[in-house]
Amino acid sequence: MSRVHDMGGRYGTGPVNTGQPDDAPFAADWQKRAHAITTLSMPLGQWNIDMRRHARERLAPRDYARFTYYEKWIAAVTDMLVAGQVLSEAELTGDDAQPPDEAIRARKVSPEQVRAAAGKRFPYSRESDAKFKYAPGDAVRTIPRAGNRLIDGGHTRLPAYAVGAQGRILLSHGAHVFPDSNAHGLGEAPQPLYTVVFPACELWTHPEHPDDEVTLDLWECYLEPA
């Protein structure tokens, strides 16, 4: 990752806000609507969760820095709806109020479908004949550069602060959808996924607590034998 959202280990941004008062998921009603619009727009634009994440990463750095969490959601889904020709910029500004065409109308989600899907989880684990290169306890090192190997500037789940760090395999989760491929419509390309444990001193130059450990879920192609 090389975009502004990859903020792990940066100085100067102040304390991390870990939640809303009383751990409420939404601080205002508009945030509920932003969440619902983003989720229910997926059938219209026919995108997946990795595409959604990549859309937020592509927000202009000045906007990403000043937007709140759900402002990022609504800005990203707006970009995706325009890019997917579900909406036009003229419709967003109120200069054009044409009804959606039949192809779009056919993909809308009904209230019944929403109720049926509410609370459902859609796992990204997949059956695969792939041989697992690593097992719990194995020493590994992340690859020396973070970045999508398939698409220049594309989505990846390897954070920059973990590049070149040595850790050990804690868990093997089986094969999972590979986000670097799935975010760009290149197929699910499932591969082994592991939880890797890193000492804090491997990730940070001056860790506040050197004996702390950080766990990351990482795909096999992000790893090398240590």
TrEMBL record:
Enzyme superclass (EC): lyase
Record's keyword terms, sorted: Lyase
Region (Disordered): 1-25
Single GO term (MF): nitrile hydratase activity
Family in the record: Belongs to the nitrile hydratase subunit beta family.
Function of the protein: NHase catalyzes the hydration of various nitrile compounds to the corresponding amides.
Record-listed E.C. numbers: 4.2.1.84
The reaction(s) this protein catalyses: an aliphatic primary amide = an aliphatic nitrile + H2O
Residue span(s) of domain Nitrile hydratase beta subunit-like N-terminal: 1-102
Occurrences of domain Nitrile hydratase beta subunit (ranges): 124-225
Record protein name field: Nitrile hydratase subunit beta
